[in-house]
Recover the amino acids of this structure.
């Protein structure tokens, strides 16, 4: 089980909940990433308040950095153990979590000289 910040209705910060979620195995073209740092972006507020509508319930966050834990069928160029960062604005949202499955096409390899915190803070301008 992973931990994730999610919301079941739009509103202020009080609608956010820490929940245990099942992440599962990545599907075709997807990867599962264990997050080491999560970017905070002002646009996260827009999702939470409903200004940017998303299906509910949903996760929070669009940018993070971490390590690839698993790759699904057809993924090329990434393998378990790779350090990566990403911005992903698809649904479900999910960077505010310990693990997340997303399409591999959103990943960027993280050079050894760039720490997770810097990468998570720099992948999206807000």
């Amino acid at each position: 089980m992973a931990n994730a910040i999610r919301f079941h209705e739009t509103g202020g910060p009080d609608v956010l909940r820490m929940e245990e979620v099942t992440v599962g195995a990545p599907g075709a073209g997807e990867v599962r990433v264990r997050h080491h740092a999560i970017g905070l972006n002002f646009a996260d507020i827009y999702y939470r308040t409903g200004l940017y509508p998303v299906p509910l319930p949903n996760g929070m966050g669009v940018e993070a950095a971490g390590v690839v834990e698993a790759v699904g069928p057809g993924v090329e160029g990434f393998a378990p153990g790779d350090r990566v960062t990403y911005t992903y604005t698809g649904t479900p949202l999910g960077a505010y979590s310990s693990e997340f499955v997303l399409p591999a096409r959103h990943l960027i390899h993280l050079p050894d000289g760039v720490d997770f915190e810097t990468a998570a803070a720099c992948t999206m301008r807000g």
The chain is about 10% helix and 35% strand. The two ends are 31 Å apart (CA to CA). The first helix runs from residue 43 to 49. The mean pLDDT is 95.
